[in-house]
């Protein structure tokens, strides 16, 4: 396992999954084959779902340190380095949840299912290369807003054409 | 996630963007640079100029990613590390501003200003302060400040405290600061949040060797964590508890640990049992206490005890001479209750075989001696042989025990019968033993008492070599040769499988100021002996007794005659060749008798 993680960064991967074990989001910050990714996701999800509510949010799994937290029906799971601060990782996860919440307005699992690209965009504005790039909530959301605007502008001309009647 | 080729191609662009005024781009450029360095470490140099003004940024995003970049560079290159040490005052200032500044809605998390940046700075300070007195001193105050002023009611404050503790423990901090750090961990242990308790135990485990006394103060809290519900917390508490056991607290600690052993999950039992044995061996206040502790482990967690514990325990029991009667009685009683736990059964069988005579003669002083007959004892041992619960190894132990009792008990006929039955056992190992024991009864009956007599006190061997050498107490070493500054001492051991072989180790030392090179030791023995010389450790005997050349000689002495030896020494000393012959006659009698 260790040899496949040739890059060392704070966050190696981030997984979001439901209580039934369905993967809603997966972001990998280390190079791994599809097969390896599937295996890791599957095994890790099973391990975490088997844990009782009274247990710690941290566990050692294979040679990784895993930090996870459940928010409503979704598990947020992050794999970090051995020397990393688990408590601040919990804050990282919490920040991501807050960003989603602010963007979607009281976010729920359905929002993520139906707008997963947005969930990825938000994550990508918050973490880059496995490290936090922006520590201000406001700035991350501003960046997403601007991206949304660009997207709308790109989509706008089409509807204008439609209006004129040139479908 | 670019490949290394991509990184090489684009590194220049990234470097340029690092200097742009657009903070949005700049922060991303910094993390790109981090990735480039991770993929292609040789490119690190080219980013160096751009790092000059990174820390004077106001934008937290850029600041954060810059600190990540600096951290990456320092972790990878000792030169960079030395170069960036000068940033310590600036980092300290930034951290100070974060703590002292008022409420900033943009970066606030539960009343703390940009905890992510604070943690990253603390981490960089840790790397810069490690092994460097000056840097460590420069950050001393700010660390103390963070440690005392950070709000601990929420996870975020504790995250910062945790990082601070890690930094304090890693740099060259003064003792007061270290004690402060350990006390923070001690407070963490009392926190309701199990995550906090977890990180506290993990950190304490790392520091228990270096700051032992400070951690000892929190011993009772740590022991309480043995009762925690979380598996990881329990494991760490157990490891930490064993690390804290010493001669003063052994009784109290052992009580808690044995209680833990009783009630813990099976996954812990093997490690806990091993830990108990180790601690008991080191700090047992009395032999009786030691035996009692072993008994407790064997009876409550007997099936989880590691296989290598059995010979260790046997050795321990053998050496506690005055406790033999007590030990065999307790083990016998334990067998009457339960024969399912193999390590217990094996140790018990061995003891009964060895000390069965003490058992039936009721010699126990430590507690009320029980009344048991020879037949009852043999019933129990035979029961082990036929029970489905016994493993083949256990059966071997009990058959041997029965055999040994033939020289301690009077019911020899019964034993003869049992042994002959197993001469046709399906189990090959058992069959072989039975056949050999049968032979002892028939052809070699005269040797039986000697072979089955009480075991002597054993010295613990450091490791099991290819031949098991049991160093018997009492064969004194001797000086075989001492001339012209060259001294050769002989030490003796007996090779276990064959008592006719004397194993002699020569130790050659040189007290002159010049070394002896091309050193060759040769030996000859009389015709009735056979000699084998193994390779020497070296051919150079260092000057001024600064080292020893050793060599092993094996002498076969089947007729047990007095050992005599003629030795020849050749070496080069101060440029000239030296040769000498000598007779060695002063062998101690124990080496050949």
UniProtKB/TrEMBL annotation, chain A:
Domain AP complex mu/sigma subunit: 12-150
One example of a Gene Ontology biological process annotation: intracellular protein transport
Top-rank taxon, per record: Eukaryota
Pfam families referenced in this protein's UniProt entry, alphabetically: Clat_adaptor_s (PF01217)
Classification via InterPro entries: AP1_sigma, AP_complex_ssu, AP_mu_sigma_su, Clathrin_sm-chain_CS, Longin-like_dom_sf
PROSITE patterns referenced in this protein's UniProt entry, alphabetically: CLAT_ADAPTOR_S (PS00989)
Location of this chain's protein in the cell: Cytoplasmic vesicle membrane; Golgi apparatus; Membrane, Clathrin-coated pit
Claim: Metal-binding is one of the keywords in the record: no
Cellular component GO terms, alphabetical: AP-1 adaptor complex; clathrin-coated pit
Main location: membrane
Keywords: Coated pit, Cytoplasmic vesicle, Golgi apparatus, Membrane, Protein transport, Transport
Recorded topology in the membrane: Peripheral membrane protein
One GO molecular-function entry: clathrin adaptor activity
Family assignment from sequence similarity: Belongs to the adaptor complexes small subunit family.
Role description: Subunit of clathrin-associated adaptor protein complex 1 that plays a role in protein sorting in the late-Golgi/trans-Golgi network (TGN) and/or endosomes. The AP complexes mediate both the recruitment of clathrin to membranes and the recognition of sorting signals within the cytosolic tails of transmembrane cargo molecules.
Oligomer and partners: Adaptor protein complex 1 (AP-1) is a heterotetramer composed of two large adaptins (gamma-type subunit AP1G1 and beta-type subunit AP1B1), a medium adaptin (mu-type subunit AP1M1 or AP1M2) and a small adaptin (sigma-type subunit AP1S1 or AP1S2 or AP1S3). Binds to MUC1.
Name this polypeptide is given: AP complex subunit sigma
Automatic annotation (TrEMBL), chain B:
Lineage: superkingdom: Eukaryota
Record SMART domains: Alpha_adaptinC2
Membrane topology: Peripheral membrane protein
Cross-referenced Gene3D superfamilies: 2.60.40.1230, Leucine-rich Repeat Variant
GO cellular-component term (any): membrane coat
Chief location bin: membrane
Any GO BP annotation: vesicle-mediated transport
Protein location: Cytoplasmic vesicle membrane; Endomembrane system; Golgi apparatus
Pfam assignment, any one: Adaptin_N
Keyword annotations from UniProtKB, A to Z: Cytoplasmic vesicle, Golgi apparatus, Membrane, Protein transport, Transport
UniProt keyword Transport present: yes
Domain GAE per the UniProt entry, residue ranges: 473-588
Protein name: Adaptor related protein complex 1 subunit gamma 1
């Amino acid at each position: 396992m260790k040899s496949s993680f040739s890059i060392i960064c704070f966050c190696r991967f981030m997984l979001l999954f439901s209580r039934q074990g369905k993967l809603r989001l997966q972001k990998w910050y280390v190079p791994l084959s599809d097969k390896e990714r599937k295996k890791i996701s599957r095994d890790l999800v099973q391990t975490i779902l088997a844990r009782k509510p009274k247990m710690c949010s941290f566990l050692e799994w294979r040679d990784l340190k895993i930090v996870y937290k459940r928010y409503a029906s979704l598990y947020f799971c992050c794999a970090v380095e051995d020397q990393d601060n688990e408590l601040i990782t919990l804050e990282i996860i919490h920040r991501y949840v807050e960003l989603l919440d602010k963007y979607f307005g009281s976010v729920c699992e359905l929002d993520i299912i139906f707008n997963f690209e947005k969930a990825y965009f938000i994550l990508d504005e918050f973490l880059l290369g496995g490290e936090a790039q922006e520590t201000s909530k406001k700035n991350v959301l501003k960046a997403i807003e601007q991206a949304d605007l660009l997207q709308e502008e790109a989509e706008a001309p089409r509807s204008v054409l439609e209006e004129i009647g040139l479908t | 996630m670019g490949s290394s080729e991509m990184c090489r191609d684009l590194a220049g662009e990234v470097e340029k963007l690092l200097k742009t005024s657009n903070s949005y781009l700049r922060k991303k450029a910094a993390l790109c640079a981090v990735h480039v360095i991770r993929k292609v470490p040789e490119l690190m140099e080219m980013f160096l100029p751009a790092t000059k003004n990174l820390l004077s940024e106001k934008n937290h995003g850029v600041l954060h990613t810059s600190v990540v970049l600096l951290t990456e560079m320092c972790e990878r290159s000792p030169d960079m590390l030395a170069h960036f040490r000068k940033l310590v005052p600036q980092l300290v200032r930034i951290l100070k501003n974060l703590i002292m500044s008022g409420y900033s809605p943009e970066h606030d998390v539960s009343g703390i200003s940009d905890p992510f940046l604070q943690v990253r700075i603390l981490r960089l300070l840790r790397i810069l302060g490690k092994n460097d007195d000056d840097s460590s001193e420069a950050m001393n105050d700010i660390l103390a400040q963070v440690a005392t002023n950070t709000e601990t009611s929420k996870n975020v404050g504790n995250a910062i405290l945790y990082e601070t503790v890690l930094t304090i423990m890693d740099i060259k901090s003064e003792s007061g600061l270290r004690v402060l750090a350990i006390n923070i961990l001690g407070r963490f242990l009392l926190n309701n949040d199990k995550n906090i308790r977890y990180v506290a135990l993990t950190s304490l485990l790392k520091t228990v060797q270096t700051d032992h006394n400070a951690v000892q103060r929190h011993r009772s809290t740590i022991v309480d964590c043995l009762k925690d519900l979380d598996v990881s917390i329990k494991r760490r508490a157990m490891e930490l508890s064993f690390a804290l056991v010493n001669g003063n607290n052994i009784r109290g600690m052992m009580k808690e640990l044995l209680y833990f052993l009783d009630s813990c999950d099976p996954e812990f039992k093997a490690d806990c049992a091993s830990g108990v044995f180790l601690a008991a061996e080191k700090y047992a206040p009395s032999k009786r206490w030691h035996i009692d502790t072993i008994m407790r482990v064997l009876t409550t967690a007997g099936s989880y005890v590691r296989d290598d514990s059995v010979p260790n325990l046997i050795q321990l029991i053998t050496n506690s001479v005055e406790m033999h009667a007590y030990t065999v009685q307790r083990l016998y009683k334990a067998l009457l209750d339960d024969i399912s736990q193999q390590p217990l059964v094996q140790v018990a069988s061995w003891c009964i075989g060895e000390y069965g005579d003490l058992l039936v003669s009721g010699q126990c002083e430590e507690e009320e001696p029980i009344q048991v007959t020879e037949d009852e004892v043999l019933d129990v041992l035979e029961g082990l042989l036929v029970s489905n619960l016994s493993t083949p190894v256990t059966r071997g132990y009990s058959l041997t025990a029965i055999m040994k009792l033939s020289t301690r008990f009077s019911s020899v006929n019964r034993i003869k019968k049992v042994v002959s039955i197993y001469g046709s056992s399906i189990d090959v190992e058992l069959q072989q033993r039975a056949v050999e024991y049968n032979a002892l009864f028939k052809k070699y009956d005269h040797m039986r008492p000697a072979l089955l007599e009480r075991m002597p006190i054993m010295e613990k061997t450091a490791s099991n070599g290819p031949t098991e050498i049991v160093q018997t107490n009492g064969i004194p070493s001797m000086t075989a040769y001492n001339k012209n500054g060259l001294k050769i001492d002989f030490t003796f051991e007996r090779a276990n499988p064959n008592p006719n072989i004397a194993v002699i180790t020569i130790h050659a030392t040189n007290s002159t100021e010049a070394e002896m090179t091309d050193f060759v030791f040769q030996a000859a023995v009389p015709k009735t002996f056979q000699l084998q010389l193994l390779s020497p450790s070296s051919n150079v005997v260092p000057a001024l007794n600064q080292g020893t050349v050793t060599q092993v000689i094996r002498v076969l002495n089947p007729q047990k005659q007095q050992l005599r030896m003629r030795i020849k020494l050749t070496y080069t000393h101060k440029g000239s060749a030296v040769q000498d012959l000598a007779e060695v006659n002063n062998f101690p009698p124990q080496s050949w008798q």
